[in-house]
């Protein structure tokens, strides 16, 4: 169960560079492509002629051409032409609202009349020359909410990421969870500790001593349907921690867009935005590589957890203080799901 | 759904050379082998002793010996002997009518009392020294009718086979479909065009200039249950096209026997019969290799189309003029299926 | 269907050396590990916190630590601690009776109150310096009873193992099956034959001539739920066969513990115990390697047979004299299953 009247990250621009991309999102099979003037478009991945996936075709003059018999599909889901055929009476396929913004392609899989681009989240670090961003995509076989849980409870770093960002001090510092409207914030502060390897490297990357005690913070922010932005960083101890002046700290924003493919699989867009040395592309690449390795450590755990939960479907899980972020996030998701169900029931009655 | 009271190509003789072959055809698990005097035989792939597949065994003195405990099976589905056992009371397994003809092994998976070898199609090019044949086998995950559609609408060559036999002139020339009893014929003629790479090579192979305009033809002939023979060729332009004298043309017959394995998978026997340079085995090999590469280009499209059709089970597909061959072929198939259903109902009443 | 109130071999000690082992046995997902003082323990492979498999974690101070968020599980299925948490109210998970004996870890997947370690079979060759043992583990996709059938009817050696231990004389000598309480014994004796390659090597390994006629024996002993011990050997012909003095024979015990994973898959622990040259580790390794190759020859046959039986679910199989061992073994298994069903019904009534 996932909200459909919402914007999900569907892909990154490079994925539709010169060719269409077929991708299932919220159980909808969609093909993404660049239509006229480079505008992004998304339609069902189904040719109305003989049912071939349009994603096996190519783009010509802004039209998506079926690779089987040449039917040309427009960005509105209407066939624009086909060699030797009159296409006026051809059935349309579904077109999906789609927007390119902040370096991502966003798609709306629900009621198209409600698709307001203003609902796409503001990302203050995107399109800002003081910030750099690098990231990647993982295809993971788990319910999107398990990934939200994972990201809202960083206690797992001590175990899953013991050699990079994990350290015992994380689980020793109790987190605090607050709900602010549709936002859930789980924060954890650790003072006067030694920096783990990843943060030592970040300190060096920011031209700071890496062998002195630091204050460390993790501020996880969930917003629906399944975005998690995490402010993370370290400052030389006693300089103010999270509020320390820039010259004493290395910090960044862990960026997580979790897009359901099916009930038990996701497209996981992960990355990191930083506001130090933003022009240093080599540093961006190095951070992405390091983050990619660390985030890959979660995948086996999440997929194994998912398989276990399917087998033990009746078991209740614990909801400890460390699970507060995930628990609150699920409450918001549940409320949105209920609203969607009510709203579509209303529509059914009205029509 | 496929007709069962009909002959399907099961395998080629080399596939049962020295060992049995297990193959599922029309959902029947069958083992093919050479019985006494090299006569081909086909029985259920199930040993009545402990259920092992007989195809894991071997042939000895014309009997199929189970590779688990040595039960010997005859070509009639009756156990002929077993070490240390009296076999008279052993249950029989099903034997299938099977005929070796025209370089193929043909099997009848329906009512054996109706299996008339005279119903095996005549192939004038087989067993004829003026003709050469080369071909291969692909295992494809699609409904056999999707492959019939594919072969009866060669418009797809422009897209799927753009670099070999495809050219824009194909889709610009409207095909014509005729039904002649149980035969469906879809023809397309293109005049004064340049030959695509495959046909340039064929012209050279026939000692003809390959850089002059040609007339090209494609005459697809469907006969039930799922055989498609396609007369294809080019002639130097203005020499009479399809009817041009042999010294001005290169032509051949594309041979397609499509045998259902299950509702959504097939054994696809493809090949080419030609009547020029029939003794040139190297040419035969070269053509087979080229055809194999071209025909492999269809597989991903057909399997993707099949998956799409299973997901969008309720969608109606278009039936355009280019689809006429496939549409008419399905009508004939549907009639045969209906006749089979009626006939077996009659049998049920009578018995 | 498999008895659950019984001891199954779960794993060998090396498999839980320094790390936990997750393994499904009788449809139960279990994690095995060494708890305090090296005592073996087995609990459900499910962390009560968030459902992660505990087998992805590690052992610390005899506690099984979840690799996701650090919950510590004791060998009794009760959470012993968790960083920053009070664990008293945490739900327990199931603990399984488990015993390390005879070089194997044994688990009881049924009613724990009935788990009597004295019911673990005595293995006279284990823990005995006059004997050596070597073996391995195969994961096979078949019903455990098909493997019992296989081992109680060695006729198959003539076919499946033709190049190593098979020989026509096996199927020419009729076996005899006796039932002795819960034990089924199938014996076969062959006199004055030539030794097949495996036994020639064993004769040489025992410093005996390998090119003289031998007497050969195979005595298969089934005990429930699914253990099969086979006394096998050859003696120089005329020296007394099975009863010949040690200096004229090479013999050993084929050891088979067949542990159901699911209804159609098993953990197959195979090996060989011998009482000649027991200190010769190189010989042990050589025998294990040879046996491993021979026993691997059965797997394709058994998995193919299993698939066939699932497809032909309604067919009755033959029960010949050679099948007597398997047939009697199934009778005992069926009786045990019936007793278990009755006993649990009684319990239900009583409670």
TrEMBL record, chains A, B, C:
Q: Which residues constitute the signal peptide according to the record?
A: none
Keyword line: 2Fe-2S, Iron, Iron-sulfur, Metal-binding, Oxidoreductase
Q: Where does the source fall among the domains of life?
A: Bacteria
Q: Which SUPFAM superfamilies match?
A: Bet v1-like, ISP domain
Annotated ranges, domain Rieske: 7-107
Q: Which InterPro entries match?
A: ARHD_Rieske_2Fe_2S, Cholesterol_7-desaturase, Rieske_2Fe-2S, Rieske_2Fe-2S_sf, VanA_C_cat
Pfam families named among the record's database cross-references: Rieske, VanA_C
Protein name in UniProt: Rieske 2Fe-2S domain-containing protein
